[in-house]
Write a structure and sequence with these properties.
Layout (H helix, E strand, L loop, with lengths): L3 E3 L37 E10 L2 E5 L6 E6 L2 E2 L14 H11 L5 E5 L11 E8 L6 E3 H7 L4 E2 L9 H13 L4 H4 L3
Helix pairs in contact: 2-3
Length: 185
């Protein structure tokens, strides 16, 4: 299955948080029961250039070679070994899952919350993918948290989906999903 994902720039102030569109969770096992969403009106179409780690990807505009380092808002994935970080438990698994979920060339939708960039110059975006089989939109961060590949982490003022991600973390923790089982001390 190839996922279609889109990114969008959101207005600085949103009147209401978009909600899931159906009461039942996804039947796709890669989505861990995540609920489908109505794609935000301000979501911008982007293409996956590469995956850096479990919460950072590189995105391009369609038919453009320039990529933007993009941090997924509302989550914290375990670190990979790098020049400024040491590998943490479940870091490689989180990256590999995100590569599978968002393969190179996948179309995604990116949504800006409040801030445009983080202190490291990375874009801050909520990213949605479109399931090719159903046409439903899914919040990538919610999938990562439900699967235990990342934890929910609030980064005010960019907190549009914090409540959803906190609920997803409670579920993942209760089910010992991913890092919650593998990295238990």
């Amino acid at each position: 299955m190839t996922a279609v994902v889109t990114l969008a720039a959101a207005a600085p102030i949103l009147a209401e948080t978009p909600q899931a569109t159906e009461p039942a969770g996804s039947t796709n096992p890669m989505y861990f029961g995540a609920l489908p969403w109505e794609l935000p009106d301000d979501a911008e179409t982007m293409v996956v250039h590469s995956v850096t780690d479990g919460d950072t990807i590189r995105l391009t505009y369609p038919n453009d070679d320039w990529y933007y380092n993009t941090r997924l808002i509302g989550i914290q994935a375990p670190e990979m070994d790098g020049p400024f970080t040491e590998e943490q438990c479940y870091g490689p698994e989180a990256k590999e899952f995100l590569i599978e979920l968002l393969p190179v060339g996948a179309e995604v939708y990116a949504q800006r919350d409040i801030s445009d960039e983080d202190p490291n110059g990375r874009w801050l975006r909520h990213v949605f993918l479109i399931d090719e089989d159903t046409g439903d939109a899914y919040l990538v961060s919610e999938i990562l948290v439900l699967g235990g590949f990342a934890g929910a982490k609030s980064y005010p003022p960019d907190d549009l989906y914090d409540d959803i991600l906190e609920e997803a973390q409670v579920i993942a923790d209760d089910e010992d999903a991913g890092l919650w089982e593998a990295c238990a001390a």
